[in-house]
Input
Amino acid sequence: MLSYIKGNLTSIDGIEIFPIISLVIFFTFFVGLGIYILRADRKTIEEIKRIPLDEE
Output
């Protein structure tokens, strides 16, 4: 089954760019999330931390 999928994907021109694009999107998302967490003030972090416990 895997060889069938791999055979089909290798026949597509330009397919090798998609793993690179996926890696860049993944890396950018987590770097952005890390920057957001490091720059957020403590009050915002406490509000986000309490969201699952709120009854409202």
In short: The mean pLDDT is 86. The radius of gyration is 20 Å.
